[in-house]
Amino acid sequence: MEIERKFTIKNLPEDIGRYAKKELEQAYLCTNPVVRVRKSDEEYILTYKSKHGVTVRANATARSCEEVELPLTKEGYEHLKEKADGNVIAKTRYLIPIANGRKIELDVFHGYLSGLMFAEVEFESEEEAAAYQMPEWFLEDVTFDKRYSNAFMTKFQSYGELMAWKKKED
């Protein structure tokens, strides 16, 4: 089970260069349920995410889903990536340790989404997620805003187009 919250950020932490990072590329084969292939540095992963059997409380503070990850070969990844439904996302993910063994996964997007940055934090429980106090450099909780879903963002041609759509919906 994955339980997470997502946040936009005001600015990158000044000491961002000291944290571990991964270069990610990911493509979505299906968005309901989510079937994704990802290259994380030189590791290749097939991910299935589903809300089937997950009960969402009316006052939930975190997004929950069932998630299964399986290893892929480079060849398998490349083959499946060609079948992507939408654009392929490229980003740098910084892994910033925080209390209780948790970490902030700070994503800085490249390519057609250049300029976009947001952070995700995963939790063990809804209660832990609800109690989380975001750091000063976070801006807004966008956990339930579909516009910040990676799968949704693959449908746009640029960060500017995504933001224009966001303004139109607000």
Q: What would your notes on this structure say?
A:
The chain has 170 residues and is of the alpha+beta class. It has helices at residues 74-81, 126-131, 150-153, 159-169; strands at 2-9, 20-31, 34-40, 43-50, 63-71, 89-97, 103-109, 117-123, 138-141. It has an eight-stranded antiparallel beta barrel. Strand 2 and strand 3 form a beta hairpin. The two termini are 31 Å apart. The mean pLDDT is 93.
First-last Cα distance:
31 Å
Spell the H/E element sequence.
EEEEEHEEEHEHH
Radius of gyration: 16 Å
Strand content: 35-45%
Low-confidence blocks of residues: none
Number of strands: 9
Descriptive terms for the model:
alpha+beta; 17% helix
Task: List the SSEs and their pairings.
Blueprint: E1 2-9, E2 20-31, E3 34-40, E4 43-50, E5 63-71, H1 74-81, E6 89-97, E7 103-109, E8 117-123, H2 126-131, E9 138-141, H3 150-153, H4 159-169
Antiparallel strand pairs: 1-5, 1-8, 1-9, 2-3, 2-6, 3-4, 4-5, 6-7, 7-8
Task: Produce a short descriptive summary.
This protein is of the alpha+beta class and 170 residues long.
